[in-house]
Structure formats: C-alpha cells, structure tokens
C-alpha cells in the first residue's frame, strides 16, 4: 500500500508529525519534492526535531528513508540533519538513501534567491533557501547533480558556467573544495532511481509531501507559490519511477496560516490573528517568520481536496482553538456581489470576500461543539476525517 501525505493549505499543516506517526505502518518514508524550504517539526516529548530534508520517519521504529530525485539538496543542511539524527537515533540514521540524480542547492543560491525575489514588483517572500533558483537551473540544464561529483572537472565546468550565467564572482576552487568535502561525507548513501525502485517496489511506501496544495507551482496561488508540484501530482516524477498511489491523505489545520506573501481571504489581521499565532506557536520552522493566521476556509479546502485527489483528511491543531468562545469558518465567497461555493481555479482569489458562519468554540475535543465542527468539515468538504491531532507530540493523535 502506497500513501502520500500532503498539506491542503499553504504549508505548515503538521505534515511532519503526521508522517512520523503514520511511518510505523510503512516500510519506507520517501521525500519527493522541495528542499530545505520545508520545515517539519516533530515533538517526541523529551526533544523536538526539525526536518528540512531527511524524511520524517519515526526514529524509534528504524524505518527506511529515501530522498527522491525531485528533491533539491543543500549539502550543509543535509549534513547537519544527519548528525542530529545520528545523535538521537544512531541505527535509523544508517537507513537513509539519497538519489544520486538529485540536484544540488549551491551555497551561493541563497543570496541570489533573495536578489531575484527583490527584483519583483511584488515579492513572493521566499524562504531564501535557493530552492526556486535550483529548480530553474535544473530546467535550464545548468544544474549540478550529486552524481556529477564522480568527476571534479564536470563540477568545475558547471560552476564556471553558472558564474557566467548569473554574473557572479566565484572562487571555483573554494566552492569545489567545500562541496567535495561535504559530498564525500554522504556519498555512501547514494543510489540511483532504478536501484531505489528495485529496492522499494514491493514495500509499503509513505510519501511525505512538503509545502501544500495552495503552494503548488501549477495548481496553487501562482505566482505566490513554491517551485514544484508539491501536491500529490509530484510523486511520480519526484520518486523517479512510476508508482501506484493507493491513498492520498490531506492534512489541514483547524484554522489557516500562511508564511510569505500572496492572497489569503480569511486572514485575521487584528487581535484574533495574533491570538491564534501566539497560542499555536505560529512562527516559521525554517525562517522564524511570524505566520499570517486566519479562519478555516472551506472554499479553498474543497478546491485543494479536488485538485489533489485527496481521499482522507487529518485535522491538526484543533486544540489551539479550544480557548475560543466562538470561531468562524468560511463557507463561501462573494465575488462581484455574487455568492459562490466553489472556485474553478484560483485566478480571482485576491478579490473574493469570505462569507463566514459562526460556530461554537470547544473546551475539549470530547465536547459536542468539537464533534459538530468535525461533522461540518466532512459535510463541507465531502471527505472523511480519519485522524485528529490533539497536541504537538507524535502520539497525541486519535483515530476516528
Ligand atoms: P513546509 O513543508 C510554508 C513558501 C514561502 C514563500 C513561497 C516560496 O514546512 O510546509 P520558496 O522558498 O519555496 O521559493 O518560497 O513558499 N514556503 C512555505 N510555506 N511551509 C513550507 O514548507 C514552505 N516552503 C515554502 O514562504 O511564500
Ligand atoms: Mg513547516
């Protein structure tokens, strides 16, 4: 059984915790897109781990982990994370494999990422991790892949080309030396896509999505998106081999957050937003930026469920709203004075007005008000909820 876990909003839905929890039922956890723009915080109780590149498999269960060809790799980040994993779960850390055809995020991409974003009339507010640039270079055929390090000459030539293309003063030798040293430390983990498929073809795979459907480069709120198909559609190319997906699980918070710029119809700019931010600890796991907060938006959720082929929902952070007397949910939009329940695409998203329904808040998740909220969500979205996360720790989750 192959399952993919994706975010249904603008990222940070708690995918990391969900993947960690579910990984016990699978043989291998696979990352298929994005890079270190992702930040998946996993709370084990005694300590927390923030995953940026290494799949969020539960270290206690010693599961295989694979980083597929669709992921772009910042070697410095990977090495830091490997060290952390090795300290906490030494046996698990030997179970990671990385696709050798994956592209590298080079050290100078970060600064360039910032310059590119600053050149726009309306910046996207990227994570400045060089992700978009790395995928752009890949598409332009100027990318550098892990397997290129089998020969220094190839790397040097590519670095020279990149310096010319982006008009950079690069010390080729220094960059090469730094990358080579890092590469040597992870080279024993490398396999190619065919080998990965052979190893994993009869196993149960759990694909870990990054970002969220609304940040998908094609079906998200373009241009305020990331640079990959981080929705379920990215699995095939990101794994590097056709694979049957049996189930798509979509994760949503009980409210909405967004980090970076772009439209957000239900955003709460005043005190209520600040309250959710504080209670929910809504600060970016990658950049530390305060996340924008707002009410749950069923119109967007319906859209995300539809375009991702989502079969099942998992609700996170419902515990955060338990301090609210009343909450609101967006059930429709008003566009040019007309009420709509569905959006065919997201072109008009920046000019819609949310239509809210007020709901009773809940004191705890066993209360009638909370059951009503979940029923409402299932009804509005048309997909069943399979789990509700009841706290930040991995095992704080209940199956419905
Ligand atoms: P996880 O996996 C939330 C956002 C950035 C920016 C836009 C483009 O933790 O859910 P990029 O650096 O990808 O070019 O930035 O996408 N973004 C995320 N927002 N969670 C993430 O990952 C994100 N990864 C990128 O804030 O708006
Ligand atoms: Mg995150």
Give a description of the structure.
There is one protein chain. With 400 residues, the protein is of the alpha/beta class. It has three domains: 3-102 and 191-249, 3-Layer(aba) Sandwich (Adenylosuccinate Synthetase, Chain A, domain 1); 109-186, Adenylosuccinate Synthetase, subunit A, domain 2 (Orthogonal Bundle); 252-399, Adenylosuccinate Synthetase, Chain A, domain 3 (Alpha-Beta Complex). It contains twelve helices and 18 strands. It has a ten-stranded mixed β-sheet, with helices on both faces. Strands 12, 14, 15 and 16 form a four-stranded mixed β-sheet that branches. α4 (109-118) crosses α5 and α6 (152-165) crosses α7 (172-186). The model has no long low-confidence stretch (mean pLDDT 96). The site of 6-O-phosphoryl inosine monophosphate has 24 residues, from α5.
Which molecules other than protein and nucleic acid are bound? Answer: 6-O-phosphoryl inosine monophosphate, magnesium ion
CA-to-CA gap between the ends? 20 Å
Strand order of the largest sheet: 7-6-5-2-8-1-9-13-17-18
- What ranges have pLDDT less than 50 throughout 5 or more consecutive residues? none
Number of strands: 18
Strand content: 15-25%
* CATH C-level category of the largest domain: Alpha Beta
Mean pLDDT over all positions: 96
| Count of discrete structural domains | 3
């Amino acid at each position: 059984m192959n399952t993919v876990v994706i975010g249904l909003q603008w990222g940070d839905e708690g995918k990391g915790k969900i993947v960690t929890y579910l990984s016990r039922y699978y043989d291998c956890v696979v990352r298929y897109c994005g890079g270190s723009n992702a930040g998946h915080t996993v709370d084990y109780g005694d300590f927390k781990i923030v995953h940026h590149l290494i799949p969020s498999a539960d270290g206690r269960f010693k599961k295989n982990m694979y980083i597929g060809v669709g992921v772009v790799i910042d070697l410095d980040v990977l090495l830091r994370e490997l060290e952390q994993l090795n300290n906490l779960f030494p046996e698990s850390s030997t179970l990671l494999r990385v696709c050798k055809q994956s592209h590298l995020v080079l050290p100078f991409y970060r600064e360039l990422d910032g310059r590119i974003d600053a050149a726009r009339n309306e910046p996207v507010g990227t994570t400045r991790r060089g992700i978009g640039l790395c995928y752009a270079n890949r598409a332009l055929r100027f990318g550098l892949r892990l397997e290129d390090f089998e020969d220094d000459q190839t790397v040097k030539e590519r670095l020279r080309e990149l310096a010319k293309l982006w008009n950079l003063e690069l010390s080729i030798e220094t960059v090469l030396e730094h990358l080579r040293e890092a590469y040597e430390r992870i080279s024993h983990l490398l396999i190619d896509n065919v080998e990965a498929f052979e190893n994993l073809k009869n196993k149960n795979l759990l694909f870990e999505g990054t970002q969220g459907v609304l940040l998908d480069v094609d079906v998200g709120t373009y241009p305020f998106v990331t640079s990959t198909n981080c929705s379920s559609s990215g699995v095939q190319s990101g794994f590097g081999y056709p694979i049957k997906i049996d189930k798509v699980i979509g994760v949503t918070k009980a409210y909405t957050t967004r980090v970076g710029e772009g439209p957000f119809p239900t955003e709460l700019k005043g005190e209520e937003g600040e309250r959710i931010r504080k209670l929910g600890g809504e600060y970016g796991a990658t950049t530390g930026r305060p996340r924008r907060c707002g009410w749950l938006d069923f119109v967007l959720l319906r859209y995300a469920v539809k375009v991702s082929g989502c079969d099942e929902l998992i609700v996170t952070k419902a515990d955060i709203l338990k301090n609210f007397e009343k909450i609101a949910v967006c059930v429709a939009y008003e566009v040019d004075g007309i009420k709509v329940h569905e959006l065919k695409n997201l072109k008009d998203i920046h000019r819609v007005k949310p239509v809210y329904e007020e709901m009773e808040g809940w004191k705890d998740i066993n209360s009638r008000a909370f059951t009503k909220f979940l029923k409402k969500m299932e009804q509005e979205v048309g997909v069943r909820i399979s789990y509700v996360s009841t706290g930040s720790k991995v095992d704080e989750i209940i199956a419905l």
